[in-house]
Write a structure and sequence with these properties.
With 393 residues, the chain is an alpha+beta fold. 34% of the residues lie in helices and 20% in strands. It has 3 domains: 54 residues, no CATH class; 153 residues, Trna Endonuclease, Chain: A, domain 1; 163 residues, no CATH class.
Amino acid sequence: MLVAQTINGMSVSLMHHDWSFRKLDAWRRRTRFICPACQGTVILRLGDKKRWHFAHKNNASCSAQAEHETSNHILGKRVLHRWLKAQLYHPQLEHYLPQIKQRPDCYTEKTEPPLAIEFQCSTIPARDVMQRTQGYRSIKVLPLWILARERLKRVMTNIYQITGTDIATLQLSTQSSLVYFDPHERQFLLLHDIIPLTATRFYAQALTWPIQATPLSRLYEVPERHEKALTTAVLQQKKRLRTNQIPPQTPDERYVQQMLALRGYSLYSFPDFAGLPSARFLPIQTPAYLWQIWLIVQFLLHKRGDTFHKNNILQRFHRLIQKGVFRLRETTYPMNGVNKAISHYLFLLTERGLLSQSQDQYQVISDIKWRNMTLDEALECDISCLKRLVMIL
């Protein structure tokens, strides 16, 4: 914490003055500081290794103090406060919102609606992110989650490992991108066009900007998609899936492989229209190629002329979720997210020329078979399919 109160109600900010150690040390000896949120005693820490700050006692319980505060977090919110101040947003540091018992790192009412910035350094449960986001929205405050740059792990070109905490901030914000910030380098990183490839790995494009060249509005921009980079990443992923000889490890992998084995099909010969990626599939944690193979086998394979209703898919999908076969990411409205994901996949199959649609009723209009192909043949089909659909994934 950088803001506390004296027992007389005077607000004390370590941001707004050029404090000396001698003055602060003398002050803490003769007065008691309290937390504006919980009214509990806080200690003014004036150490050499960590930036000066206020801290709750170890056994204190404060609803507005979500997690332990690191030196990186303290520095980050100081830098972000100055950044907003330079743009005349008149930000308030650690402003307490008593209606929801939350204290964002920076808060301003110079935007419409008011804006609460959370600089997130530590990993917290996704449900905590959702609760805090819902809290802000309940009082008509827009949350902006800015994540510590050190949280992001780049695996290879355009492939990132992203935690559930970070993904929760993406799904619940008004943005289509993740915003990372390095307070030491004074640099933003915007991760956009985020598309799940596996349960933990994502395709994405990254842009970096120095803080002094980044107005607040820039964090909400939607950059153009790089179709060639996305196609390359998806083809590499599908090639890995087709050549993967590791036995199934997870319930969804085992379930789908057993389903195929009973029918005499090889998992690695899946059709080119399985494993299609899209940002709309984010709510489903089970990799896209698995649940899409399930849908193809159950509703499309050898069923030319048959019709089905989207609700039939959703009901059976939901039963597999309840059984622990398919997995969802933690979101505010998970089944609504599944509905949108399934709808978009059916749209892609329609564009691929496999289905016709009348509202939520679909008819199989192609003779869909499970072909045992060579790797080269399968990859050629993958390339052809992606060329047709990459614009609308």
